[in-house]
Design brief:
Blueprint lengths: L1 E4 L21 E5 L7 E2 L6 E12 L4 E12 L3 E8 L2 E2 L5 E5 L7 E8 L5 E11 L3 E13 L7 E6 L6 E3 L5 E12 L3 E13 L3 E8 L2 E10 L6 E13 L2 E11 L4 E13 L4 E5 L6 E3 L6 E27 L3 E8 L2 E2 L5 E5 L5 E25 L5 E14 L17 E11 L10 H8 L28 H9 L3 E9 L7 E2 L8 H5 L2 H12 L22 E7 L4 E9 L8 E10 L6 H17 L30 H6 L4 E6 L7 E4 L2 H4 L1 E6 L7 E8 L17 E8 L2 H6 L11 E6 L1
Parallel strand pairs: 1-36, 29-30, 29-31, 29-32, 32-34, 35-37
Antiparallel strand pairs: 2-11, 3-11, 4-10, 5-9, 5-11, 6-7, 6-8, 6-10, 8-18, 12-20, 13-20, 14-19, 15-18, 15-20, 16-17, 16-19, 21-28, 22-28, 23-27, 23-28, 24-25, 24-26, 24-27, 33-34, 37-38, 38-39, 39-40
Length: about 750
């Protein structure tokens, strides 16, 4: 493979990010966090559902189908969900995911949609909000992007305007307002229609069916009255195969067998795909399957798939009408006899009223060839569960680079703007002069002054939005992330000239260093700022912890040579009895101009620990040190973050190249600093555990230099990535690295 790095002309217009459509239409990204104990929600604020975020690659005009399914725990009150796409809410803006007094009754699911997105990579995040204790256990996010009118496979979406619930009181099927779409199928294939809604019934059954060109197919008891304490969202996927090529009209209809039925926020996603990308199974009979043999997995449905691409991502969604007279009905999906992720879920627990239940399972790195999908159910002892109208949809797409843009260790692709508080605190050590306030502000925000580096690498350097006001944390973050992470309001206390907070008299000088009582120093700094700052006003969920989306706290001490760490302490503040936990950017900044750039670098390094979950690269493996090619290895020159940690934080778009069948290719790779594009190379047999990242590091040309200016002429850089810890432990070099290994090689 030949790789041609490009040198940008001064201030060119950035091209759109490269979509990945060389092999198959559509893009599918899927996430199922490792199975673990339930995770609790923060109260009264929108915040991320742990592990449910991902990149997804789109072409111009694509629609997005964003499906979330999860085991939910909550008793009393409600828990709301929403999907963000690049930081903005998809449709609908939010839904009541679970409500009622039954703490746990199985899974909830909902499909959010977004129409006509721009070309490039989009970051999808699921958030939740609740006023009462809520927890989540096994959960899955799938993000499917495809065109409504271009290519072999099509995706149409529909959503109804949010507003008062609509009601149905008669037993005649009628169209559900807003749930209609026209779709063109270029080739014969399969059809999947996913309906999601907030639903309730006062009595009787709320029935839903799908229509294809006026002919009904499929039906479900979406919910049944008489059990109001198991409320929330429901989803069901109607499937049909084969569907002929041509233009089709799809609608959803509903009826009430008796009483009053209600629908709130609702969506419909319709995918028509060739059998090499989507396959389905449905049972038309309305007779129920009875499961009552405890501890025995029973086959419910089976679907064959044939994957043509060397490596695919597979999402299998099972839907059915279900009820249980007592305990739990478990669900799992086997692919070639191996469990998909999660290994199993509690589809329902208790409840003798019918309701629709749905959950998605995923498989990464599905190899080309024929595969057999089997959906199975199992019940608890003394439990009799009924399953009716089962439906299985299998959707698979070639694994894209954006499907690697997902949480890893503490790194998560999120769009965020952060607030920061900078506290100046002087222990009054001899020989360590206070930096002037202008220099401190310039470190974080720039201030219209340029403090040059004695090495002259940045003396004349400036770039678009980066060095116009001198190197600074805000501009560094903007250039590295492309706006995914932003530094917003910055407040300064105790660091104005002649207005520094100082250590108590008994602890001035080198006392903290002589005693090793550095945490006491952080507590003293917070106590000094207590009179000027209401710290608890930033604690938006009142959990006595300052989260990163509440406030970032930087404590700055004067020191001749810049230094920094990330720490945490607790302190009694604002007269509140409960201690407040405060993560601390523990920074030491120099008054010397020659130390300014290093001060910016160490501040950015520690900031990325806090907001990006990045890990230190220095010390663990000197033989393959990245040096200035990652600020997480060497921070003194404030160069860029490495591409792996950028990728896992959603700051770059990878284009995946599969090497097993790829013979030769010439790839033009623009500079990562301006265009935020990288190549991800993987072998079919190792995609889950080991791959390579290639980036073009180009520092720009005067007067349009960027933060990689200290790299000189730049280079095309190859990184070897090990995500599998077992491989790290057995690697020839740097055994025992607890995280992963990144190897650098410069190509001439």
């Amino acid at each position: 493979m030949a790789i041609r790095g490009t040198k940008p002309k001064p201030r060119p217009k950035p091209p759109a990010a490269l979509p990945e459509r060389a092999f198959s239409p559509g893009s599918l990204s899927a996430v199922a966090p490792p199975e673990a104990a339930p995770r609790g929600a923060r109260l009264h604020v929108w915040n991320s559902v742990p592990g449910l975020s991902s990149g997804v690659a789109s072409t111009e005009g694509d629609n997005l189908e964003i499906a979330v399914s999860a085991e939910m725990y909550q008793k009393g009150g409600s828990v709301w969900f929403r999907a963000l796409v690049d930081g903005e809410a998809a449709e609908p803006s939010d839904v009541m995911f679970k409500t009622g007094s039954v703490k746990f009754d199985g899974v909830r699911s909902f499909t959010f949609v977004k129409k006509a997105v721009k070309a490039g990579q989009h970051l999808v995040e699921i958030q939740w909000r609740t006023g009462t204790a809520a927890k989540i256990r096994d959960r899955t996010l799938t993000a499917y992007s495809d065109s409504p009118f271009i290519g072999r496979d099509h995706l149409a979406v529909a959503t109804a305007p949010s507003g008062p619930d609509i009601e149905k009181k008669n037993s005649t099927y009628e169209n559900i307002p807003g749930m209609a779409a026209t779709l063109n199928a270029p080739v014969q294939g399969t059809l999947a229609v996913t309906f999601s809604a907030e639903a309730s019934a006062s009595s009787g059954e709320l029935m839903v069916r799908a229509l294809l060109d006026g002919s009904a197919f499929g039906a479900t008891t979406f919910c049944e009255g008489g059990d109001p304490n198991r409320g929330g969202t429901r989803s069901f996927t109607f499937t049909k195969s084969p569907v002929s090529a041509g233009t089709h009209e799809v609608k959803l209809q509903w009826k009430s067998t008796r009483g009053t039925c209600r629908l709130g926020d609702r969506t419909m996603a319709v995918s028509a795909a060739h059998n090499s990308a989507q396959n389905t199974a449905a049972v038309t009979t309305s007779s129920a399957r009875i499961l009552k043999q405890a501890g025995v997995w029973t086959d419910l449905q089976s679907v064959p798939v044939t994957a043509l691409d060397p490596v695919s991502t597979l999402a299998v969604t099972f839907s059915a009408d279900v009820h249980s007279d007592n305990g739990r009905l478990f669900l799992r999906v086997l692919v070639d006899s191996e469990p998909a992720s999660p290994g199993d879920v509690t589809l329902i627990q208790g409840g003798t009223k019918w309701r629709a239940a749905s959950h998605s399972f995923i498989v990464k790195n599905l190899h080309a060839g024929r595969h057999q999908i089997t959906v199975q159910g199992m019940v608890d002892p003394s439990t009799r569960a009924l399953v009716r109208h089962p439906s299985t949809r299998a959707l698979w797409k070639r694994r894209s680079g954006s499907d690697f843009v997902q949480p890893f260790l503490g790194m998560t692709p999120l769009v965020r703007t952060y607030r920061m508080l900078v506290i100046g605190f002087d222990p009054i050590r001899p020989g360590h002069d206070r930096p002037p306030f202008a220099m401190i502000k310039a470190t974080f925000e720039g201030a219209g002054i340029v403090i040059s580096d004695p090495g002259a690498t940045l003396a004349a350097a400036r770039g678009p939005g980066a060095f116009d006001e001198g190197p600074n944390v805000r501009a560094w973050l903007a250039e590295n992330s492309g706006g995914v992470a932003r530094l917003g309001e910055v407040r300064y206390v105790g660091c104005l000239d002649q207005g520094w907070y100082v250590a108590p008299p008994a602890r001035q000088g080198n006392w903290y260093w002589d005693t090793g009582a550095f945490e006491q120093m952080w507590k003293d700094a917070l106590a000094a700022a207590d009179a000027d700052v209401n710290f608890h006003s930033y604690d938006t969920d009142h959990n006595n912890v300052l989260e990163t989306d509440d406030l970032l706290v930087a404590i700055v001490r004067p020191q001749s040579g810049p230094y920094g760490t990330l720490r945490q302490t607790t302190a009694v503040l604002d007269g509140e009895p409960a201690p407040l936990t405060v993560p601390v950017l523990d920074l030491y900044l120099s008054a010397r101009p020659e130390g300014f750039l290093s001060g910016v670098g160490v501040s950015c390094h520690e900031l990325m620990h806090l907001i990006g979950g990045t890990v230190d690269m220095y010390g663990s493996c000197p033989a393959i040190s990245a040096g200035y090619y990652s600020i997480m290895d060497a921070h003194w020159r404030a160069t860029h973050l490495d591409p792996f940690e950028k990728m896992k934080n959603g700051m770059v778009q990878p284009t995946a190249v599969e090497l097993t069948t790829q013979q030769t290719a010439t790839v033009t790779l623009p500079s990562v600093e301006r265009h935020r594009q990288i190549l991800l190379l993987y072998d079919v047999a190792h995609a889950a555990s080991e791959y390579f990242i290639i980036e073009n590091r180009f520092p720009g040309i005067p007067p349009f230099k960027n933060y990689d200016a200290p790299l000189g002429q730049g280079a095309v850089v190859v990184w070897q990535i090990f995500e599998d810890r077992n491989l790290v432990e057995t690697a020839v070099v740097c055994q025992g690295d607890p995280r992963f290994i990144r190897r650098r090689a410069v190509l001439t």
